[in-house]
Every structure is written in structure tokens, then in C-alpha cells.
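mind reviewing this stuff:

——
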Amino acid sequence: MDVKWIELYFLTGFLKLFLFHSYHSTDFEVHRNWLAITHSLPIDKWYYEATSQWTLDYPPFFAWFEYLLSTVAGYFDPGMLEISETPYFNRATLLFQRSSVILSDILLCYACSRVFRYVKTVGGGKFSDLDVKMMLTASFMGCAGLLIVDHVHFQYNGFLSGIFLLSLVNVASGNIVWGGFYFSVLLNFKHIYLYCAPVYFVYMLRVHMFHDNKFLGLDLVGLIKLGGCVVLVFAASLGPFIQHLPQILSRLFPVQRGLCHAYWAPNFWTLYNLLDISISKVLQILRLLPKSGVHPLMSGLVQQADFLVLPNISPVHSATLTLVALTPVLIKLFKNPSPGQFLKSATAAAFTSFLLGYHVHEKAILVILVPYAMLVFSDVEHARDYYFLSFHGTYSLFPLLFEAQEFLVKIVILLMVHSFMSITLSRMYPDLKLNMFEKLYLCGLVFHFLAAEVLLPLFLPHLEFLPLLLYSAYCSLGVGYSYIRLYTAL
């Protein structure tokens, strides 16, 4: 990693310092509690501790990451390492946790430098060094979504995106074993990336098949190296917890939380929910359905909720629909195992799981944007589609910042980063233009924002869930359009 990337890391890190004292969500206490758990208890107790409601529910590598942070946290404030039922907060805790997110972003910076070298190698000098670096900065190190989710709301998605990028760029470069290593490590940090596992499996298997002068056409040595690498990573992660795997799995996959999160992710199930709400209201007016209070789906709570008219959706239903939608993608990848097709398929897999997955969080839109950003350097259509999705996908994260002091912050982050991105893309692709629908949709965000953030809270303050519903509904239309664009371009 050359000095220019280090300079960019410090530049973007300096800008993130201005967000230190902004609002932080309950995820701040979640990670504080995980510091306490991993510091105070033996590892066989980590996934059983439940003094606080914010129990450890990430894979073991992330637990070890929290443990490493805890070895330093005590120098800032030993109190943050005490397990407690109630939240713990002071300035020292804020300083440490905010700083740890910024410092961990160094891995994302390194990954960007690797992607830069990859783009320059395969691009044949199509883009200037400055434009590639600016685009990678806007897409990752200064990503608007990461600024909102990690540096305001509070999470550690930056360095995880870095590991994901390292995996993608190694696979695309032909370094399959290293790509498999990084992806295995990633899965043991955060299991949401299982979305892309089928694509990795199909691609890695396919590139080891149909080789001349190989037994049955298989590159057995390559498969053994890859398989051994993956097994070793999972053994290192799960080995110390082997007797507690059922408990870990129950924490990682809590299906009792229901189909949708408290704030519905803008996906297919948002439209399904709205259809059930609309039909039930009509039937109640016609007296064909008993009148009730607030629809169960609009409680704003993380819980199982029954549909009043449409069939209930179980995890099995959701997984089946996801697999059906993903099958054509996997078949095409198997037939055409090229690096470009791999990146498209990884994006499509993340996108399909976001649209049809069970209990999807709105923040999962960031998983889609990582492989999609690499497609920006392939052609103008992917660049246009990425920009459109990045803009309205970031906008869909606005409900995470609901306090008045962040009203302007989220607007500035969205417009600043995407203006920077737009200028860069206009130099990379002078003929890049949004179509009429895309322009109208983005213009509609202005009226949507005024309705959801100003008018509804002002005139209908008792309907607290309505602004969230408005966000989910409008953004799901944009997400659905972007998905169709990507799917038809595979």
C-alpha cells in the first residue's frame, strides 16, 4: 500500500472525527457489552451470557475481535468492561469506540489499494489513476452509507467490507485459494455474507473442472488446497466452541424475530406487507373482516407478526424463494466462469437475498454495494446503475438517524459523497446519463423527504410508524427497479 492511500486514509479519517459526538444507536451499547462479555468471561460463557438484552450474536472471529479491543479499552475506562443490565456511557467510552471504528478502516484502505492495482491491470489504462482512486474513495473509504451506519449510527462494517473486497479481488484475479481464505474469514466475522456463499461455491468448483490432462478433468490439487484452507479457517473459528455449536447457531439465526425488522428493509416483503395491510383495511370497511386496532405488522417491534389476509411467510418459504431466484444466476455462472461474471453473480446473490431474505436489516444494502462498486470499472451501464442504487440505497438508511441534530448531517453526507462520485463518473464516462424514470425517482426523493421528515411528524405525530412505512414503500420501488436492471444484465 503506497503512501497515497495512507494519505487518503488519514484524510477520510479526519473528516470522520467530526461525527464523533453525533447520535449513536443501541448498537453502541451492543458492542460495549460485547467488550465486557469477552473481557470478563471465559470463552465457554460468551454465547450464554444474557445479563443485558444485547447478547453476543456474531460468529467467533468477531467475538475475538471484541476481545482484542477489550485489552486496550481498559486503559480508557475500566468501567466499560463491566457486564451490566443497563447501558454504560461516558466520554472515554465514546472516544474509544468511535476511534476503534476509524482505526479498523485501515483494512478497508488496504483493500482499496488492492482493487486499484486490479483495475489498472485489467483496465488497460482506460481510466486515469486519479479517477480510479476518487471512485474507490467515494465508494468505500468515504462511502456515504458507511459514514451513516458506522460513524454515526455505530457499527464495524468498514473493515468487514475490506475483507469482502480482498476476497472478491483475489478471486477475480485468479488467486482462488486466497479468495477462499478471505471469504471464509469473513463468514466467521459476520454471517450475513452467507448471501454470496452459493456464488463462491459454484465459481470455485467450476474453475477447477474440465481441465485437460487432469484426472476426470478435475484439478484435484487445487481443490485440496482450497478445501484445506477453508477447513482450517472454520476449525480455528469454531474449534474452541465445538461443544457449544447449537447455542451459537441459535444466536446467529434467531428466526423468532419475524419476517421483517422493526424498520422494514426496502424489499419485496415491504410490498407484501403493504398489500396485506391494504386488503385487510378494505375488508374491514366492507365488514368482511373484524375491525382491529393497529395492524400487527405496524407495531414497530421486533417480533413475529401474523398477516391478517395473506399467507404467513416462514424462513423456509423465504429461503426457497431466494434459491429459486438465484438458480438462473448460478447456472449462468457455471456456464461462463469469468471474473466479470463472478462479480455480477456475487452482486446478484447479495441483491436477491436482500429482496427475498428473512428478517433482512436495511443496513444489508451495504453488502450489495461492495461487489457492485467493482463493476463500475467494466462499462457505463453498470456505472450508471451503481450510482443510482448507491444514491437511493443510502437514502433508505435515513431513518437510522432520527434525531433533530442529524437532520442536516445525513443530507450533507448523501449529497456531498454522491456529488463527488458524480463528478468522477462524468470524467470516466462522459456519455453517462440517467434515464427519465431514474431522474424522476431521484427528484421524488425531495418530496418524499419533506413528507416523511417534516409534514407527517408535524401534522400526524401520533402515527409514529407512518414515516418509516413511507420510507420502506418508496425505497422498495427503487431497489426493485435496480434489481431488475442488474438481473437482466447478467
